[in-house]
Prior knowledge:
Shape: globular
Largest sheet: none
Helix content: over 70%
Order of helices and strands: HHHHHHHHHHHHHHHHH
Radius of gyration: 23 Å
Structural class: mainly alpha
Number of strands: 0
Amino acid sequence: MNDLTEGPILSKVLRFALPLMAANLVNQLYNVVDTIIVGYAIGDYGIAAVGISFPIMMLFNALFMGVSMGGSIIISQMYGAKNFERLNKAVNSTVFLALMMGLVITGIGLTLSRPLLRLLNTPQEIIGGASLYLMIIFGGTCGNLFFNLGSGIIRGMGDSKWPLYAIITSTCINICLDTLFTLILRMGVAGVAIATLIAQFSSGIILMLRINRGGYSMKISPAQVIKPDSFILKNIVRLGLPSGLQGMAMSLGGLIMQRFGNSFGAEFVTANAVIQRVDGFAIMPLMGLGMAMTTFSGQNIGAGNPKRAQKGIYVTLATILTIAAFLGVVMWFAGGAIISIFSVSDHVMEMGKRGIRIICFFYAFMGMDHCIAGAMRGAGAAIRPVINSFIAQICRLTLTFALAIVPLDRAIRVAVESGEYASADLARAAGVGTEWYYRVYYAMALGMVIGAVLNFLYFKFGNWQDKGLEQRRLRAEAAKSS
Length: 482
């Protein structure tokens, strides 16, 4: 375990963050290999079907991930305060709440997958594959639950290595099974989904076993899981629900963006899925440092040392800005070459290359957003990052509509009114107005800027240092005794 409450800040943060970055790298490498396999075995529509499913999955998983985040924040604060009795209660209470959420997510996801795809105006060519993929994924929600829950618990205590080991195992299993199910057995997107489920269950089991047998200062006990601590449970919800709502806001924004993007046709959907895979390599270290700041901030706020938490944010921000500048240059020159390894058409590749060259200029703002929002959540100030996220999403969607969708609809209307096409559907199928697709990425980039600036202002002028759970409990006890 890694105690982040003492010692040199940068080396401590990097030591904790490097396994998180490596885990993100392995996960992104899996996504790329998975996409390549799907491209070869199924083609562009297979990539699009899996890619369009992601924002829907994230919408339903956001609340559960928020619960895991709330539990991780409390666990890191309790570990920083060296209160191991309450640490044990926090872990078991988190497991209880997560299991309840998992059951809810499974039921809702199975019921609403296909209606949501229709609502998103999903192209007819990919709706069947996307629906099948989602139904299988939601049917095995518990696998994803065990992995994310175990990772959050272990990271909260400063151990970032075992989540890495688990995801390496998961990735190896996933790639092998993808190859077997899609290239050899020709199971299509169903094979991709089944491979994902088996891999997630495997990694989740590894982490659950590690928690109970790894010599940590707590254990998961069925007797304690079914009798959660009410005070801790309430605060997990208090901290986790805003994070979950933030995740849902981002996912809902992603769904609306997906609907906007679907207006540009299946080729854009495919290009966007490829961009997400390639872009994931660039944002990997930024996300890793942001995740590290949640634990760093939580442990130091729990230990009653907000000045060290604040200094850690400045140090990490400087590191992120340096990395982001370097990555932006690399992706500008190498992004197209990376996209070319996917089995996509030339037009899709050109769309992807243009999109990545727009986004790469704004990595610094994305990294700043991840760092400060992660630190604020770790400190227990979970509400303000949610508000800022909502504002950024609304601005992003408004800009997308104004910059991309309005010109697209105007071009289609003009083409129909001029008699060039008999109907809007025919004009849309012919690709009229699709040249405006790249403006979607400008709107996305401006949304990153707005979110980063709002979070930075709260960091500079807000009262986030006073939100620690342990300090709240101690003040309450002191007030009662007096």
